Amino acid sequence: MANSPEPDARDSLENLPCLLCGGQNYRPVYQVLDRLQARIQSGQVKKLETYHIVACSACGFRFLNPRPRAQDLGKYYQGGVYGPHQREGGGAVGVVYRLLRPFSVGYKARQAARGLAPGDLLDVGCGTGEFLREMRRRGWQALGIEKEEKAAQIAQDSGCPVLVGDPLETDLTNRTFDLVTLWHSLEHLPDVRGVLSKVAGHLKPSGRLVIALPNPDSLDARFYRSRWAAWDAPRHLYHFRPGELERLMRQSAGEFRLIKTTSLPLDPFYHALLSEISWSHGIAAWAKAIRGGMIGLLSFFSGFAALRGSSNLYIYQKA
């Protein structure tokens, strides 16, 4: 198939080749909806815009195609319903998300910095700054980059230094870092190669690069198929299966060694619950949330196997 399906009569989308191999041919995998739009337009699922997850015919890499142009992506984070950028609201799931966030942030901090003395940290896509604050508490000199202005302002108001703008355009002149983290931000970036190359250039020798990504091969992804919340169209542009990030790193970031992989323990529950309630409302949503908890638990245990987590964590060391 040389071209992806028609973009629902929207002229603001663009078709792109495969990120990994440059292939121009692809096959459809899923037709997906914007889960945030579904929550805003309760009961109007049939009227939502559709997007397409495709797989490269040559290498199998999955990505959103066609997709919004880079200059239009910001509007899909607006409206106050994007969970990672919220300090309040979001219903019951939002409350639980924020209650458990300190545990999640602490786990991330331990995994990212294990064996490292406090030094200079760059968090790309820092959101509202929870990870930055935790790392500053642990003695790190932590700097964030965040493109969404409201989220960046929340982080700045809490005392965290944040550069606002596109990671490729922010000025890091004369700055080097012991640790660079991308917590569920790489899949949002239009120019993944450019960002990886840039942050690699600002890592100190033997510096550490930590990347967390949703896993489209996970148990919850395979169960929910087109309704898996972590497709998160049109915000998630790329969907890395195990092994594909390693290939991209070799192509884009220079000499790095993968020193550890693990899973994020809360993500299977979060993804499963969102996959259930994003498409239902009222009592029906609560009933489906019970099934979401069960699927999340199964995916949690599945994540004990290597690279089978709902989200995988990749830890690299610069050569």
How are the elements arranged and paired?
Blueprint: E1 13-14, E2 26-33, H1 35-40, E3 50-56, E4 62-64, E5 67-68, H2 91-113, E6 120-124, H3 130-137, E7 141-146, H4 149-157, E8 162-164, E9 177-183, H5 192-201, E10 203-214, H6 219-224, E11 238-239, H7 244-252, E12 256-263, H8 267-277, H9 283-302, E13 311-318
Parallel strand pairs: 6-7, 6-9, 7-8, 9-10
Antiparallel strand pairs: 1-5, 2-3, 3-4, 4-11, 10-13, 12-13
Helix pairs in contact: 2-3, 5-7, 8-9
Structural descriptors:
disordered N terminus, 13 strands, 7-stranded mixed beta sheet, about 25% strand, Rossmann fold, alpha/beta, 9 helices, about 325 residues
Kindly describe this structure.
With 319 residues, the protein is of the alpha/beta class. It has one domain (90-318): Rossmann fold. Helix content is 32%, strand content 23%. The chain contains nine helices and 13 strands. The protein has helices at 35-40, 91-113, 130-137, 149-157, 192-201, 219-224, 244-252, 267-277, 283-302, and strands spanning 13-14, 26-33, 50-56, 62-64, 67-68, 120-124, 141-146, 162-164, 177-183, 203-214, 238-239, 256-263, 311-318. It has a seven-stranded mixed beta sheet, with helices on both faces. Strands 2-3-4-11 form a four-stranded antiparallel beta sheet. Helix 2 (91-113) crosses helix 3, helix 5 (192-201) packs across helix 7 and helix 8 runs antiparallel to helix 9. 41% of the residues are buried. Residues 1-9 have low confidence and may be disordered.
